[in-house]
TrEMBL record:
Residues 410-436 are annotated as: Disordered. SUPFAM superfamilies: P-loop containing nucleoside triphosphate hydrolases. It holds the Pfam family MMR_HSR1. GO terms for cellular component: cytoplasm. This is DEBR0S5_05710g1_1. Residues 5-274 form the OBG-type G domain. Residues 410-430 have a biased composition (Basic and acidic residues). GO terms for molecular function: ATP hydrolysis activity; GTP binding. Keywords: GTP-binding, Nucleotide-binding. CDD domains: TGS_Obg, Ygr210.
């Protein structure tokens, strides 16, 4: 970041990565009950639900985001998701689709690791029965680590010699090597600091390199587990085993397939359904004036069993929660840029808080300005009440998260001022407008 945050969806073949992507976005990624259905990565926009600034000022009725949507103070902010090819044991050595898949992941800021807890696919994603998915979690993490580690091993002698010759710090040397993964200096520093008793870099053996890379992975790819296919009868026992073995990992139980199905029924006018909740209403629940289509007995049965097997048992299909948890790991701050800091409007019109962009907590006001306004020279930044905000202040939830930037008038004033008037930045051009 400052580019938009990106969440990678990883896991072995056929665990349900593409289904998870489809369940969270408008994407229609190909899904199949055989390994390597996905080869090229699928990128799509999901929406993160958070409390909107409009609710702080009682302006819910006037809130009309340019991207995403806001419903009674709950805002759905776009966030990018990347579904990649399946990973099998040995991928870091090139097995399966190997390194190609791993390279696609470089720019992910957090990972959703999808685990098939139904036990119906083996480590390579082939159909089977009674498979124990417990080991899938560790080897997948190991493959990602080995991918990074092998790249270091190949050149370690040179890296170490140059490190000594140039009298670089550990952070400088590692940053140069790990920059390709989008690692900032701060990230590398945080990773290095978290390894106890770390000797000087030139004394590292393979074990120290492994420890450092593990620490780096924790910082660069914070991971949430999506224990998927909970609708399957064998899922329960596997879920319990995983939770016992990994008590510190964030686990969310999901049924991506159920979510895709419910969203489809909603689009077809059969049900009312708010994603992320357990509430599904049908024609039978709401009566003939509800505007919903009546369902045939087969469809009714299917909805009933979804209620029993997933919604009432687990509280939801889990996919919305898994995205929320992944975003939490990123520690994101929604920053609202407005033209008029008194009214929170975009300059023209009555609508407020039209633009909201996600930044990592600790991002400076000047980095926000650069990301939103591009290369124009900023004269000043104002916060709520028109108070001047220092460019090196940082953004936090509720503090410096509503900003208005004034640009320095220059030769092409009119054009720049117009860009400023939008107060909304270049990043938006990449996003798709969400029609609700
Ligand atoms: N029962 C059940 N099946 C699911 C669920 N999610 C996905 N599946 C099924 O699992 C199979 C694989 O799903 P995909 O989404 O293509 O899996 P993938 O991980 O993207 O697979 P690759 O692209 O081959 O790596 C399909 O038959 C899906 O219908 C779920 O929540 N429950
Ligand atoms: Mg796929």
């Amino acid at each position: 970041m400052p580019r938009e945050p990106l969440i990678g969806i990883v896991g072995k073949p056929s665990c349900g990565k593409s289904t998870t992507l489809n369940s969270l976005t408008d994407a229609n990624a190909k899904v199949g009950a055989f390994p390597f259905t996905t080869i090229d990565p699928n990128r799509a926009t999901g929406y993160l639900k958070l409390d909107c600034a409009c609710s702080r000022y009682g302006k819910e009725d006037l809130c009309k985001p340019n991207y995403g949507w806001c419903e009674q103070g709950k805002r759905h902010v776009p966030i990018e998701l990347l579904d990649v090819a399946g990973l099998i044991p040995g991928a870091s050595q090139g097995l399966g689709l190997g390194n190609k898949f791993l390279d696609d992941l470089r720019h992910a800021d957090a990972l959703i690791q999808v685990v098939d807890v139904s036990g119906t696919t083996d480590a390579e994603g082939k159909a089977t029965r009674g498979y124990d998915p417990l080991e899938d979690i560790q080897w997948l993490q190991d493959e990602i680590r080995l991918w990074i580690e092998n790249n270091l091993h190949k050149k370690w002698n040179t890296i170490s010699r140059r490190h000594v010759a140039t009298k670089s710090t550990t952070v400088e040397t590692l940053r140069a090597q790990l920059g390709g993964y989008g690692a900032s200096k701060e990230m590398v520093a945080k990773a290095v600091k978290s390894v106890p008793n770390l000797p000087p870099l030139e004394k590292w053996d393979n074990e120290w390199i492994t420890r450092v890379v593990k620490a780096f992975m924790n910082v660069k790819f914070p991971t949430v587990l999506a224990l998927n296919k909970i609708d399957h009868p064998d899922a329960d026992k596997n879920v319990s085993k995983i939770m016992l073995k990994y008590p510190k990992m964030t686990c969310v139980l999901t049924s991506a397939l159920t979510e895709v199905f419910l969203r489809k029924l909603k689009d077809q006018g059969y049900i009312e359904y708010e994603p992320g909740t357990e509430f599904v209403d049908t024609y039978d629940d709401l009566g003939p004036d509800c505007g919903l289509k009546p369902m045939d007995p087969v469809l009714k049965d299917r909805v009933e069993s979804i209620r029993d097997l997933v919604l009432y048992r687990f509280g939801s299909t889990g996919v919305v929660q898994v995205l929320q948890e992944a975003a939490k790991k990123l520690d994101l701050v929604p920053v609202y840029t407005v033209r008029n800091i008194q009214t929170f409007t975009g300059g023209h019109g009555k609508y407020v808080f039209r633009d909201c962009t996600l930044f990592k907590r600790g991002t400076s006001v000047s980095s926000v300005a650069r990301a939103i306004m591009g290369e124009v020279t900023i004269a000043s930044a104002e916060g709520v009440g028109g108070k001047r905000v220092a460019m090196d202040d940082i953004v936090e939830p509720g503090k410096n998260d509503i900003l208005s930037f004034k640009v320095v008038p220059g030769k092409d004033d009119a054009k720049k001022d117009d860009e400023g008037a939008k107060g909304e930045g270049k990043t938006d051009s990449k996003k798709t407008k969400h029609k609700k």
